[in-house]
Design goal:
CATH class of the largest domain: Alpha Beta
Number of helices: 8
Strand order of the largest sheet: 4-5-6-7
CATH superfamily of the largest domain: Response regulator
Largest sheet: 4 strands, antiparallel
CATH architecture of the largest domain: 3-Layer(aba) Sandwich
Number of strands: 10
CATH topology of the largest domain: Rossmann fold
Shape: elongated
Order of helices and strands: HHEHEHEHEEEEHEHHEE
């Protein structure tokens, strides 16, 4: 649990948006349901181990890059992990800097093979470089602002509930205090809307938020 929380925090500092699953079954369901840029997968998981999760993801023709983390430092297990469909294999203990570098490498590889930039009107978000631009102007966001925008843009025109946003940004085991979600949405709006006059983020009363370009 501590490693998971520390990993999440380290990636959020680098402005990645992070979802957490504590067992293989829920991890598999998240990978099926959401369009992630990369999966970091521990082998020693309850319900379904990492090998099984990896194989199930590939059976469903999901090509998301997968990095396996494990304490099993044997050639046999490395081969088994790669044969299960993973793209990389990192043995514990490891440095967060090395893991971040491997994630960046995989994201660059994906970017060269397909366009990964998310767009909504004249707003763009590049998951590989974390650059957010509107009308060609670079916009600097905090990690939580970036996470909210990334999530909304991936499912634009769909209403994202408050619970979905809160779990996605703060994690399943921690809830924001008071109106923190509304505060961060307000800050985000000021940065991507106020200077440009055109509204993009809409509030759906008592439900959540959505990005709409019309």
């Amino acid at each position: 649990m501590k490693l998971v929380r520390n990993l999440k925090k380290s990636f959020e500092i680098e402005q990645y948006v992070v979802d957490i699953a504590y067992d293989g079954e829920s991890g598999l369901q998240k990978a099926i349901k959401h369009d992630y840029d990369v999966v970091i997968l521990d082998l020693m998981l309850p319900l379904k181990d990492g090998f099984e999760v990896c194989r199930e993801i590939r059976k469903r023709q999901i090509t998301i890059p997968i990095i396996i983390l494990t304490a099993l430092d044997s050639t046999e297990n490395r081969i088994k992990g790669l044969d299960s469909g993973s793209d990389d294999y990192l043995v514990k203990p490891f440095s967060f800097d090395e893991l971040h570098a491997r994630v960046r490498s995989l994201l660059r590889r994906v970017k060269t093979s397909s366009s990964a930039v998310l767009t909504a009107a004249d707003l763009s978000l590049d998951p590989a470089t974390h650059e957010v631009k509107r009308g060609g102007k670079l916009i600097k966001l905090t990690p939580k602002e970036y996470g909210l925008l990334d999530y909304l843009m991936r499912y634009q025109s769909k209403v994202i509930t408050r619970n979905q946003l809160e779990e996605h940004i703060w994690g399943p085991d921690k809830q924001p205090v008071g109106n923190q979600l509304d505060v961060h949405i307000s800050y985000l709006r000021k940065k991507i809307e106020d200077p440009f006059k055109k509204k993009l983020i809409y509030t759906v009363k008592k439900v959540g938020y959505k990005i709409h370009t019309k």
